[in-house]
Fold:
Amino acid sequence: MTENGDATPLVQMEHVNKHFGALHVLKDINLTVSRGEVLVVIGPSGGGKSTLCRTINRLETIDDGRIVFDGQVLPAEGKALARLRSDVGMVFQSFNLFAHKTIRENVTLGPVKVRRQARDAADKRAMELLERVGIAAQADKYPAQLSGGQQQRVAIARALAMDPKMILFDEPTSALDPEMVQEVLDVMIGLARDGMTMVVVTHEMGFARRAANRVVFMADGQVVEENTPDEFFTNAQTDRARDFLSKILTH
Amino acid sequence: MDELIKYAPVLAEGFLENVKLSLVAAVASLILGTILVGMRVSPTPVLRAAATVYVNVVRNTPLTLVLAFSALGLSDQLGLVFSQEPSVNSFWIVAMGLSFYTASFVCEALRAGINTVPLGQAEAARSIGLSFFQSLRLIILPQAFRAVIAPLGSVMIAMIKNTTVATAGGYLADAAATMKEVFDTTGASIPIFIGIVIAFMALTMPIGYFTGWLSRRLAVAR
Structure:
């Protein structure tokens, strides 16, 4: 799994706690993500999955504990934090494409403004990435003119354009019409095969089975179980996980 | 009618001063208002507080007092002088006061615009590594501006009409002051009133139509 032979984990979370007011959303989370690993986080709604995902690029701050990314504790703010975020791609549930910019501009903005790439080179790369996710023909349209599935694939291309060290997926298919889920999952499975480090919060059990190296089950702000996908789906160790699986897998 | 024709040239000269004041104040208040709104939404508490105090004080002070303070306080007492020529100096003092005043309204219109931009836009901007300033300039403000073009048009229309209280800042060359001067010699004249109203409407009505059209054209589809 470690492509470049670097054995240190890409992400280390140590004793991470977070509260939203009185609600303790993350309870003493200890978790590592290895380089090249695809980690799928599943669990009931309100269990802290999205919050966990969003702490890794500090869209959510944490109350205590620490998060180390690529050997460096997450910077609190400023330029160092912006630099960290440029190395961590993020794909949102609601796509969040820049509404006033074309598809091509959405993909080139980061490379040009953050990475200081030349416009020509960024355009060329953007078209390659859009080709890869199957949206090249729509490059000059605006986000609102695309379907949800297409927008989400553009969002993945936008993340890839930064050459990130990992990509966070925060329920990437939850806002999609059912017939558009697979086209997004196909792109994600392709990325997983290419060795991209991914943390994926999802309800798509099929994706977890096919692409995950490891499954983390979260409930009530805690990591209840960590396992391989096969073990987890066939032989979950905890009652909480078995209970969850029985509710979603029986029909 | 005769007095309107007779005094039309002086009145037109006066009106030209309103136009000049409007142009300066439009540019300056849009720039200053944008800076203010940037401060109001910035992560730095000191900047936020400073802009909030500024907007609340200036926006709630009558314009005549703002202009009188600019002329008597800033210029006469504190020695802020743009030109040794008194009429030129008064022009810039009034332009400055009017710009400061209008900027607080521009700021609030833009802040309403920022509130229409979904939070996810800022999160996406931050997550690709844009700084606060970059995401404001490249992502948030462009969408905020488009959302409030029509209200900004109203702010500009109010500002143009506000140029007629330039007298309060010691500037006596605008159309309203000129009209008063003419009335002092001829007595009040309805045709002159109407003439000036029509001149202002010719200036402000197209702004209303233009900004309405522009806001529909530039609306951000979500």
